[in-house]
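Backbone-to-sequence.
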C-alpha cells in the first residue's frame, strides 16, 4: 500500500492486528483493563471494516524500556516471520501511551515498522496514526509527552519512595512466611493504621528450613518434601528465590537505594552472617561439574570417598538382599569387602577398621596446651597472610569502583554509547561483586579460629564417638575434613592404607606419637616440621559448616 496521503478508509477489509497493554494492577482495576481496550478496539475494527487476525495482550508490562515489553517483542518477531501476504497492514492500539513510554526508542520502532514492513499504527482512542510524516510527528509528540509524564512522576514520587525506604517502610507484598499488616492491604483482617510485618505459621517452617540448608546440608528437594509434610507447598524456583532474598535477614534491599541496606522493623529469620554463609553454600552448589553425592546412610564411605588402593578407582556399595548385609565393592577389580563385622567374618568390616583409624587420632588432654601454642603460631602466620590478602582485595574493589564511576561519567557526557556502557559496566559490576564475596568469606576474627580449635580438641577426645553422633551429610563433611583426597583401602590386604590427612589431624598424630614415645621412655622424635609449619599459600584448616 504505497500512497502519500493514506486515510483510514484505504485500509477497508485489510488484515490488522491489535496490541493492548496495562502496566499496573491499578490501571487494570480503574477501567483500563485489557478487556476494556480489546472490546473498544474490536468495536472500532467492526465499524471500519477491518479484519483482526491476531491479538497481543500485555498485562502488567512496564513500557519505560522496550526490553521490558516481552509481548511487544513477540509481536515484532511474529511480523518478521509472517509472509507479506498475511502480514497486517496496521496495528490497532488504544492510545500512544499504551504503545510505550520510552520516547525515542518507541519512535524508532514505529518508523521501522513502516519502512521495513509497510505496517502502520493507529490509536483508537485518540485517532493518532503513522500514515504520513506529519501524522508521525504528532504521534512522536504524544510518545514524548508520555515519557515526560513518567519523568515528572519520577521526580515527584521517587524521592518520597527513597525517604520511606530509608525509614524502614516496605512496598508491595511481603515474601512467603510473612504477613503484611497496614492501612493499604487488601485483606480486611490485616488492615491497621501502621505498617507491621509478622512471621506467620508458614514462616516458622521456612525459618527451620534455613537452618536445614545452612547447618545440615539438606538439598532443596529434601527441604521441599519436608515443607510439604508440614503442609507448606513450595516450588523449586520459589525456594531458590527465598535463599537469595535479603528480606529474610531483616534488611531492605531495593534498587532505589542502590547498594545501601536499610534495617527493617520486622523479625528476621536468619542473621547477615548466616545469609553470607548460605550464599557461599549456594555458590559452591552451582559450580559446573560439581558432583551431587547420593549415598546411603548405612554405607557413608561412598560415593567418592573410599578409594580402591589396588587400582585407584572409587568404590561403591550395595546390599545383599538375601543375607540383608551391605558390602563395599570396586567395580574395576570386581572385589568386595563387608561393611560391618559379623560373626562369620574372616576379616574386620570396613566400618570397624575406619573406627580404629579414627581413634588413632585420639589426642591426650595433657598435650592440649602444647598443641594450642603450636597451632596458634601457625594461625598467626596465616592470619597475617590473610590480612595482606584482604588489603589487596579492598584496593582492587576500590579501583574497580573508580573505573565504573569514570565509565558512568563518560556515558553521561555521551563519550561512550549506551550499549558499551551497559556491556562493559556489567562486567565491572560482576567483578566487583565477585571480589566482595571473596572478601566477605575470609576469616575476620581470630576468636572464631580459637573457637574452632577448642571444638576440634573436644572432637579429638574420642573421634569415632563424635563421628557416629553425626547425621549422614555431616559424616560426609567430617570424612572430607580428615582425608581431603579420600581414604585408600586395599581390598587385597583388607586394610586401610596411609592417606593424606588435613593439617589439624596431622598435628595431633605427630604430637600423639611423641607423647606415646615419652610415656614408654623411648627416644622422643621431633614432630615433622613440614607438618607443623605449612608452606607458603597453605590456608588454615576450616571446619565445614555444622560439624
Amino acid at each position: 500500500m504505497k500512497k502519500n496521503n493514506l486515510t483510514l478508509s484505504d485500509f477497508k477489509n485489510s488484515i490488522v492486528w491489535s496490541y493492548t497493554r496495562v502496566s499496573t494492577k491499578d490501571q487494570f482495576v480503574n477501567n483500563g483493563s485489557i478487556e476494556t481496550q480489546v472490546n473498544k478496539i474490536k468495536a472500532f475494527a467492526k465499524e471500519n471494516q477491518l479484519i483482526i487476525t491476531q491479538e497481543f495482550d500485555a498485562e502488567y508490562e512496564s513500557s519505560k524500556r522496550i526490553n521490558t515489553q516481552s509481548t511487544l517483542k513477540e509481536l515484532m518477531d511474529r511480523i518478521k516471520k509472517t509472509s507479506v501476504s498475511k502480514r497486517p497492514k496496521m496495528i490497532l492500539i488504544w492510545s500512544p501511551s499504551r504503545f510505550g513510554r520510552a520516547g525515542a526508542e518507541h519512535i524508532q520502532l514505529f518508523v521501522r515498522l513502516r519502512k521495513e514492513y509497510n505496517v502502520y499504527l493507529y490509536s483508537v482512542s485518540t485517532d493518532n496514526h503513522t500514515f504520513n510524516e506529519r501524522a508521525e510527528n504528532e504521534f512522536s509528540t504524544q510518545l514524548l509527552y508520555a515519557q515526560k509524564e513518567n519523568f515528572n512522576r519520577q521526580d515527584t514520587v521517587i524521592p518520597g519512595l527513597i525517604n520511606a525506604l530509608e525509614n524502614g517502610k516496605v512496598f508491595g507484598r511481603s515474601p512467603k512466611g510473612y504477613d503484611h499488616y497496614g492501612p493499604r492491604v487488601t485483606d480486611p483482617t490485616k488492615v491497621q493504621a501502621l505498617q507491621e510485618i509478622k512471621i506467620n505459621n508458614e514462616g516458622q517452617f521456612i525459618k527451620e528450613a534455613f537452618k536445614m540448608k545452612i547447618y545440615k546440608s539438606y538439598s532443596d528437594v529434601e527441604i521441599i518434601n519436608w515443607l510439604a509434610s508440614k503442609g507448606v507447598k513450595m516450588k523449586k524456583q520459589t525456594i531458590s528465590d527465598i535463599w537469595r532474598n535479603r528480606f529474610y535477614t531483616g534488611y531492605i534491599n531495593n534498587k532505589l537505594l542502590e547498594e545501601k541496606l536499610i534495617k527493617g522493623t520486622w523479625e528476621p529469620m536468619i542473621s547477615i552472617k548466616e545469609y553470607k554463609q548460605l550464599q557461599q553454600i549456594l555458590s559452591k552448589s552451582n559450580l559446573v561439574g560439581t558432583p551431587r553425592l547420593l549415598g546411603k546412610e548405612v554405607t557413608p564411605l561412598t560415593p567418592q570417598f573410599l578409594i580402591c588402593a589396588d587400582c585407584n578407582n572409587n568404590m561403591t556399595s550395595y546390599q545383599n538382599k538375601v543375607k540383608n548385609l551391605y558390602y563395599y565393592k570396586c567395580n574395576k577389580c570386581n572385589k568386595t569387602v563387608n561393611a560391618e563385622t559379623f560373626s562369620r567374618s574372616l576379616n574386620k568390616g570396613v566400618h570397624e577398621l575406619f573406627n580404629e583409624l579414627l581413634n588413632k587420632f585420639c589426642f591426650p588432654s595433657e598435650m592440649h596446651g602444647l598443641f594450642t601454642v603450636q597451632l596458634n603460631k601457625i594461625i598467626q602466620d596465616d592470619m597475617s597472610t590473610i590480612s595482606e590478602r584482604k588489603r589487596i582485595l579492598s584496593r582492587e574493589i576500590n579501583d574497580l569502583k573508580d573505573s565504573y564511576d569514570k565509565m558512568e561519567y563518560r556515558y553521561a557526557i555521551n563519550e561512550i554509547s549506551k550499549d558499551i556502557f551497559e556491556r562493559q559496566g556489567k562486567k565491572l559490576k560482576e567483578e566487583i561483586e565477585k571480589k566482595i564475596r571473596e572478601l566477605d568469606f575470609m576469616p575476620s576474627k581470630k576468636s572464631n579460629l580459637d573457637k574452632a580449635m577448642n571444638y576440634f580438641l573436644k572432637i579429638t577426645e574420642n573421634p569415632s564417638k563424635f563421628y557416629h553422633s553425626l547425621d549422614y551429610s555431616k559424616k560426609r563433611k567430617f570424612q572430607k575434613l580428615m582425608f581431603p583426597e579420600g581414604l585408600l583401602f586395599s581390598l587385597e590386604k583388607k586394610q586401610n592404607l596411609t592417606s593424606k590427612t588435613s593439617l589439624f589431624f596431622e598435628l595431633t598424630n605427630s604430637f600423639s606419637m611423641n607423647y606415646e614415645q615419652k610415656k614408654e621412655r623411648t627416644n622422643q622424635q621431633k614432630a615433622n616440621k613440614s607438618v607443623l609449619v605449612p608452606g607458603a599459600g597453605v590456608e588454615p584448616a576450616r571446619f565445614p559448616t555444622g560439624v
